Amino acid sequence: MDKSEEIVEKLLKQMGFKSVIYEPDGNIPPDFLADHRVAVEVRRLNQNYESVNGMRGLEETAIPLWQKLEKLCNSFGRSESESWFLCFHFSRPLKPWKSLESDLRKALADFMAQTTRTNGNIYRKDGFEIDLIRASNPAEYYFCMGASSDDQAGGPIVTEMLKNVAYCAEEKRYKSAKFRSKYPEWWLILTDHIALGLDHQNQQQFLAHVKRPDGWDKIVIVSPKDHNHWFSF
Questions:
Q1: Mean pLDDT of the chain
Q2: Mean local confidence (pLDDT), 82-95
């Protein structure tokens, strides 16, 4: 059971279901069966983008990229007298990491070799940029991770929620289609990794514009940090 499923299990029990069974039919839909009648599918509500291979979650690129850059930064060694925060901006599609790493390593090495170093941009090419900002105090490593920005991320929260709820609901409906006849009621519960729990004002705006996608008797959106923070439509 992953973290999203753990949150959903707590939520279903809080809702008053007497029986909450995880994967009642094995590793196929539904993820949970509540009171032997409500089939529940669980998914992260995340931002997605359209790649040449179909829809992909933004974190599928962003998280590994951060990890690779951090490893690259560490390879330049520990700090002796100064440290620099690396801040990067990128847009998909990215060129292969092997090629990008070679370019970035050269840019960082050239910067490190300068007699006088100042804050600013050291690399801008093929949808990828790096800025370096001097740390006020030396950190553990000479180069350390600062911040990132992603061209495909962002946008008004409610707009992103509406768009990605529709995508996630359709994806889950397709995956569960051949199992639907087994249970009379189907819910989709989404753990909100876009807003991490909408505030009241944005929640009301969302509900004013959302239409429950076909194939679901109820859709629930819950904060991944607090199973008590949820709403449904």
A1: 88
A2: 86
